[in-house]
Amino acid sequence: MSEALQQLSAAVEKGNRNEAKRISQMLIDQGMKPLDIVEQGLVPGMAVVGEKFKKNEIFVPEMLIAARAMKEAMLLLEPLLVKAGIKPKYTAVIGTVQGDLHDIGKNLVAMMWKGANIGVVDLGTNVPAEKFVAAAKEHNANIIGLSALLTTTMPSMKSTIAALKAAGLTGVKVVIGGAPITQDYANEIGADGFAPDAASAVDVVRQLVAA
Amino acid sequence: MKYTSLALKRPDELRFGTAPKPLTTKRGMTIGGGLVYPELNFTLPAMLVNAATMPEVCRHYREIITGAALRAAELEAPGLVVEFETVPPMTENPAWGIELTKILLDGLELAHAKHGLKSVLRITPNDTREMDRPPRMRSGQFWDCMIETFDGCAAAGAELLSIESVGGKEVNDEALMACDISQVIFALCTMGVRDMRFLWTELDKIAKKHHVQLAGDSACGFGNTAMVLAEQKMIPRTFAAVVRAVTAVRSLVAFECGAVGPSKDCAYENPILKAITGYPMAMEGKTAACAHLSPVGNIAAATCDTWSNESVQNIKLLGGMAPTCYVEQLIYDCRLMNQALADGPTAALLYQKWMINSDARLDPQAFILKPVCAIAIAEAIVRAPNHYDAGKAAALTAIRLLREARSVDAVKIPEREVVWLDTMEEAIAALPASESEFINQMLGLVDTTKFVAKDYELA
Q1: How confident is the model at residue B283 (pLDDT cuts 50, 70, 90)?
Q2: Which residues are within 8 A (CB) of A107 and not within 5 positions of it... i.e. 6 or more apart?
Q3: pTM for this model (two decimals)
């Protein structure tokens, strides 16, 4: 990795958005491929942040500052990626299932996935099964993230997975999470993965898409 | 600000089982009158609630109340508070919430007739206004259904009205994740206070119409979200502790609008409210681990007048159905507190000291619930000329208390959390003196697409 890319990673890690933008622009001007800037500069920086968070070395606000630095740099890079026809390797559709309004956990997972350069379509809260199906088709999703915090909305995860299968979306990997959710429940309803917390959501997806 | 002085000025006056303004229920339970009562709450196992499942839902609630009331009678509980906290479909379909209220009241009536068990039912409909995005806080289908649920349940005989209202949560969620204390104050003391004033004025009309009581609100979606995030190590515990102090300003508004307690169990800001208002309070701690973990298991009981389990699913445990098991646990917790009260103030204060000291040093969130801290925060609130200033004063007092306590090793705060005390203090110091200026500043900073400014009198 070049020194400039290392500096870019460090800028993201420290949440220094001005520096992240400056280095990204410099690398663009030097003719580096935008995807290389993302994958070799920004993503490794966020990966370090994710690891620190997983080890309880930093708090969410510190992670948010890093994510913001990456986002600012992406504002420069995204138009170039679009122009070159390059999309993130994986796209995830995420939402809190029907009847449930909790969204903090879901938002955190979305942020972690974005930091790993996964394209994220956030459908919000109280999302009916048919909306997940439509979004998965529209965005050609590889991953569906379902969140629930209530025992009375957990069954909506099952019906959402059934709707995805009924729509023929059998290749999409479904990851579920939320306070009352367990691996056993994920197995029971046919989910492909269970993320016990936001920090592990990236690893779970990486394992699933690599399988 | 309605309250300009404290009902309880000394830490030794702020204790469990006694409140200067106790509440006597229709069945003759005097809450805050020298006894702590168990308060049972419960929910369904994993299942959908819809028209097709309603017969099964009714069966669950019948089973819950029959088992729990019988066990309470067998253990000779002096009384039982039952909280029916609905799940959203029961508020969206008021007839369902009302039907289940009647089932619970029938069960309690039967236990009274057969065994002489005194009881009272608290109804806590969901604040379903947030089902709309952005939420409509003062009109619309969700508002109408929520009010209809309150009205119907009160008419059916639910004697205590409560809610975990969500006004301001649209801003607070992000403020918590960013640990932005200025936006927390905006969410709680500007948006929350305005919403509470409107909501609780409406609830007061229902209470008066049906001759029932306004019990109180909870900043659950605010302070408890912070507590859970801190427990998961997502945000600093110091931040969650300071947020807790600020939540008292918002929850106080229910009392300014006529609430008489017992305020909601999950409102860990209740010790501060008890010091200000003198009304009885519900609390939850170690016996609520079935619903959520917390760092305040013992100290939460130090000032309670009802003692709750927050919520437990109706599932089978080895001892019986979970609500029956939990009513037993609550009753034994209360027996111990009531024995201490019966042995006189010295015994009660010694038991309270153990509750306090076993938790307070280990977590800043526990520390600020110490009666001496609750009174200091309460004092800062009542001295403030308005809710905005009260929010700032509550936060600054909590920061000062935590910093002083850490300096003498009275509370454990890791080094990496101390910096957050400085960050919060600096942020508050930079806030404008007037609320109108503060509102203008905040409206330029927060995501205004997430709420309807008009519903908060901000447009």
Answers
A1: very high
A2: A122, B173, B177
A3: 0.92
As a whole number, mean pLDDT of residues B375-403 equals 98
3-state helix, strand, coil in chain B (%, to 5): 60, 10, 30
Residue B453 touches chain A, beta carbons under 8 Å: no
Mean pLDDT, to the nearest integer, of B246-250? 98
pLDDT tier for residue A210 given thresholds of 50, 70 and 90: confident
Whats the size of chain A, residue-wise? 211
Task: Determine which of B49, B233, B413 to mutate to test the interface with A (most A C-beta atoms within 10 Å).
Answer: B233
Shortest distance between the Cα of A154 and any Cα of chain B, in A, equals 6
- ipTM over 0.90? The verdict is no
Confidence of residue A1 (pLDDT cuts 50, 70, 90): low
Rg value, chain A, Cα: 18
SS (H, E, C) B374-431: HHHHHHHHHHCCCHHHHHHHHHHHHHHHHHHHHHCCCCCCCHHHHHHHHHHHHHHHCC
In chain A, residues with a C-beta closer than 8 Å to the C-beta of B180 are 61
- The residues, any chain, with a CB within 8 Å of residue B152's CB and separated by 6 or more, are B94, B95, B97, B98, B101
Cβ–Cβ < 8 Å for B165, B225: no
Question: Closest chain A residue to B417 measured between Cα atoms?
Answer: A59
**How long, in residues, is chain B?**
459
Cα–Cα distance, B177 to B173 (Å, whole number)? 7
pLDDT tens track for B359-368: 999 999 999 9
Instruction: Please state, in angstroms and rounded to a whole number, the distance separating the CA atoms of residues B258 and B203.
Output: 9
Whether the upstream peptide bond of residue A128 has omega within 30° of 0, thus cis, is no
A170 touches chain B (CB under 8 A): no
Q: What average pLDDT does range A36-50 have in this prediction?
A: 94
For residues B356 and A152, give the distance between their C-alpha atoms in angstroms, rounded to a whole number.
Answer: 35
Give the position of tokens 């969500």: B166
Q: Is the Cβ pair B177, A61 closer than 8 Å? A: yes
Write out the H or E segment, with its range, that includes residue A147: strand A143-147
Each residue of B70-85: pLDDT tens digit? 999 999 999 999 999 9
Residue B3's alpha-carbon distances to B8, B31, B149, B180, B330, in angstroms, are 12, 22, 30, 28, 33
Cβ separation A59–B130 shorter than 8 A: no
* A200 reaches B (C-beta below 8 A): no
Work out how many CB contacts closer than 8 A connect A with B.
61
A211 pLDDT above the threshold of 70: yes
Cβ of residue A184 closer than 8 Å to a chain B Cβ: no
Summarize pLDDT for A69-82 with one digit per residue, the tens.
999 999 999 999 99
